[in-house]
Amino acid sequence: MEAKKPPLIEIKNITKSYDLGGATLEILKGITLTVEEGDFVAVMGPSGSGKSTLMHILGLFDRPSGGEYHIYGQDILSFNDEQTAFLRSKMIGFVFQQYNLLARLTSLENVMLPLIYSNGSDRADKAKELLGSVGLAERLNHHPNQLSGGQQQRVAIARALVNSPKIIFADEPTGNLSSSQAQEIMQILKDLNKKGISIILVTHEPAVAEWAARNIMIKDGQIISDVRKTPLAAADKEIPQIKKTKAGLSLAEIKENFLSAAKFVLINKARSFLTMLGIIIGVGSIIAMLAIGRGAQDSMAQRIKSLGADVVYIMPGLIQINGVSSNTPRKMTIEDAYALKANTDLVDKVDPMVSGSFLAEHNGKNTLTTITGASTAYEELQNATPVYGRFFTNKENDNMSKVCVLGQTVVNNIFGQENPIGQYVRIAGKRFLVVGVLPVKGATGFRDADDIIVVPVNTALKRLTGGIYISSAAIKVKNNKILEAEKFALLTMLSRYRLPVSQVDSFRTRNMADLVTMLETTTSTMTILLGVVACISLLVGGIGIMNIMLVSVSERTAEIGLRKAVGATKNSVLLQFLIEASGLSLTGGILGIIFGVIVSLAVSKVTGWTITVTVFSILLSVGFSAGVGVIFGFLPARKASQLSPIEALRYE
Ligand code: ADP
Ligand code: MG
């Protein structure tokens, strides 16, 4: 013998009560009802008798306080969230008393929505066809606020039909339609019923109840009569699959979540932008921090290369009295400098130098620049072989000739486009012949290394600075013996001036490593500062996002309820809000990258460093900002996903 097909719906002793300030309000007082496949039931009863409450329980938006609910013999109250969502989506179409359309979507999109959650195909075609069948073929792209109440309800009916459900619950579906439109809708429902779809509707109009095959009266939460008017046609024997087997979100759902998140962010532009501000500053700081740090490093490396790591400087310090520095500087002469050549193991070349600020003038244009007097060794020690013309010669130095080589900045400032070679520059009132132009060095720190004029040291002493004292001496060290050379230079000076070792601070030495450390300290301070700003901003930005997401969730509680009612799972709602949060923070991240690049360029302009924005720093920032969105968006998104459909639908 063939097994009997279980009924479509079987509820036993369903109760529903609300706790209202201690008193228990019993709404449904034990409803037992069986609905076979293909039935057409009209539920009637006075207002407040619990009809809608019953429909919400049947539609799986609400859970009963007690009793059993079986669909095709399966205990569906034991289903998990995803399985329940699957049932709502595949089995059930619901038509609400208040339409419940999403205001931001067009008619077409509203009707398509359940198909997204059921992973249906040909979504637009199906939706168009159904809208046509409820007489709205001309209203596909209208938004709910551009439709009459009756039209909105017809969109809602089309939406309920779009997944070809086994059963349609309709809570006063014709309440807002004119009687002729009501007839049309009932005809549609009747036709659907003829195709085997079961219908349960709530109505208070006897004319509507007339269409049904069975009339049920409810009063005070109890069925008081159940009358069949038309015999039930035999249904097919097949039982559809009602339990979802495959878990997870479909591509269409993920896409829908992206689009709806993007729409919401765009609709609230000002709010979204303010929310992103923290992230923008944070990410901007990360980008700038990495770019500036990197730029400083690069420029230091380049500087070391151009200056030579094997060059040590010695310069006079302050005279020490009882171990304390006085205000009076020591002095150093060319002879002192050349005395260092004595140690041929350590010292390769020595370049005595004297520097001062002077006004240089040509053809009425002048510039305040650094004049450095140096020997011909300068060319090699400073990597300063002229790009145009030549360096001055030993003979010119010996003769104290008034010749000079110019840095590029000086050329720009007083010659402009003119060729300076062979022309004269007036320094301290004396005419100097320009014999060469130095290669471009770029800026070091905040100083422009090309703002310089180099003249023979003897000429400088005789004609510019006066006297015999030099400012420093550059020593090219042999075999990388930097520390030995520094020690030797200091001891040589002490012995030449007959000073005890305790007076060692009378002279100072500097090598490239010292310079690098100095620069590194400045840049690392800057980097740490930017890092702190970045962290604080990202934290504040994250909190801002969390705050706005919480607002967004409560603003859209009704929307979340509707999405769940048409088949969205918890995970889908969670994803929708997570995408929105990380979308906000990612957009903030991208704006932050632009902001960071602008800041870096500005710093580059001031310091002359080549700023490098690396792919790494961009990926880091994007990762950071997306992470902030996900972490801080999680709480609000979870809150949204946990809402029960009926709580959410009742909200407002
Ligand atoms: P109707 O038969 O008119 O559709 P409902 O099922 O909507 O009636 O409501 C039945 C009763 O339940 C009403 O008296 C209503 O006030 C009450 N009710 C509905 N929802 C809640 C709730 N969340 N808390 C307390 N009472 C409720
Ligand atoms: Mg009602």
In short:
46% of the residues lie in helices and 22% in strands. With 652 residues, it is α+β, with helices and mostly antiparallel strands.
What does it look like?
With 652 residues, the protein is of the alpha+beta class. 46% of the residues lie in helices and 22% in strands. It is built from 20 helices and 24 strands. The strands form five sheets. The chain has a six-stranded mixed beta sheet with strand order 6-7-8-3-9-10, sandwiched between helices. A six-stranded mixed β-barrel has the order 14-15-22-17-19-18. Helix 4 packs across helix 5 (149-161), helix 8 (251-267) packs across helix 18 and helix 9 (269-307) crosses helix 18 (570-607). The structure holds adenosine-5'-diphosphate (ADP) and magnesium ion (MG). Residues 18, 20, 25, 27, 47-53 line the site of adenosine-5'-diphosphate (ADP). Residues 51-52, 97, 171 line the site of magnesium ion.
What order do the helices and strands come in, and which of them pair?
Blueprint: E1 9-20, E2 23-35, E3 40-44, H1 51-58, E4 66-71, E5 74-75, H2 81-90, E6 92-95, H3 107-117, H4 123-133, H5 149-161, E7 167-171, H6 179-194, E8 198-202, H7 206-209, E9 214-219, E10 222-228, H8 251-267, H9 269-307, E11 311-316, E12 318-321, E13 324-329, H10 334-339, E14 347-362, E15 365-374, H11 377-381, E16 388-389, H12 394-398, E17 403-406, H13 408-415, E18 424-427, E19 430-437, E20 443-444, E21 447-448, E22 452-456, H14 457-465, E23 472-477, H15 482-496, E24 507-511, H16 512-555, H17 557-565, H18 570-607, H19 615-642, H20 645-650
Parallel strand pairs: 3-8, 3-9, 6-7, 7-8, 15-22, 17-19
Antiparallel strand pairs: 1-2, 1-4, 4-5, 9-10, 11-23, 11-24, 12-13, 14-15, 14-18, 14-23, 16-19, 17-22, 18-19, 20-21
Helix pairs in contact: 3-4, 3-5, 4-5, 8-18, 9-16, 9-18, 9-19, 16-18, 16-19, 18-19
